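Self-study notes.
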Amino acid sequence: MSGVSPDDPAPAEEPLGEDLDPIEADEILEDAREDTLDFLEGLLDAMEADGEVSAEISEEGSIVASIDGGDVGLLIGSRGQTLEAMQELLRTVVQRQAQTRVRVSLDVDGYRERRRQVVLRQAEEMAQVAVEQGEAELDPMTAYERKLVHQVVADMEGLSSFSEGQEPRRRVRIRRTP
């Protein structure tokens, strides 16, 4: 599963509404938003966890959901693994109900933005190590996190990056270019 954030809400999918009239697309998205809220509230109840659930329809035509407050740390899990699994389950449920592709992202207590900032800092630090030592290797990351590292390195003169290894141990290496 790939990591996702509101900036990159889902793996490459066609936006909803490419072949629908705008009114029909709006109805599907509103139903999907309601299904998202129902699913997440039911999940919190089943887990006996406290939290405030919200879901919005973004300008890009996707559902952006979040759970905040209460004892939601359990919903993030180690390095966001529980959050990733919940998002995938949520996406599957919403798409089955809608009977079409709907882009769905889920965040818990702002975790995705905090993690994004950590990854960007790590990328910059390891790029500096590569400048000084010729090469640097980061810890295993999700596909989304690796993408962020590659974007940082692409903007730096004299460095290149590539991913190696197999999921879930896939990682980025940064090298100084001749």
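Second protein, same conventions, sequence then structure:
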Amino acid sequence: MDSNIDVVVMPLMGAPEVVRASAAVLSDAERHRARRFVFDRDSRRFVVARARLRELLAERLGVRAHQVEFEYGAHGKPALSRRFADSDLHFSVSHCDDLAAYAFSSGHAIGIDVEAVRVMADADDLAARCFSRREHATYRTLKPPDKPLGFFNCWTRKEAFVKALGGGLSIPLDRFDVTLAPEEPAEVLRVESTPGDCGWRLDSSCPAAGYVAAIAGQP
């Protein structure tokens, strides 16, 4: 993966005073969004995750965390406001449970996704519905102990790629292929209507015990 990509992994657990301090750097809209969560746990995670994003961006932009401004694409992808256009800084965020992963890139789009590797009763059904034919065929060849990691390898790689593209759920997940077998390196194998090398690169890692993450970017 491009050396210009910077990845930061952080825990989202925090004492009440940490959550209050985090909320202080958020915008009114972000605080309103935090209050809309049904469970306090999810609200706290959002507050800390968004505050950490602001702080990490502020370090790179040379401003205060509360001065960072966002705008959102047609499909909800956050980006820096036009005020920071000259920085050409791109970012992506993902969090699962109490773990957050942030990716930053200069000059090109980036996507990151993190998931806890676990056994899910409906994994086989989801793979049949959401994976491409090629991915599903590979998934079905995996031995049962390898299936959870294979499933989340595929899921995080596809999510990271879709995030980098910025199209959200408008991009059909079966229109492109990624590797997923535990012994295979992360790679975009095919993108529909794009012959040869699609120009996108994938990387995969274990950011913490029991988790897998994927990063998608362009060289």
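Instructor comment on the second fold: The helical segments are 16-24, 28-35, 40-61, 123-130, 133-141, 147-165.
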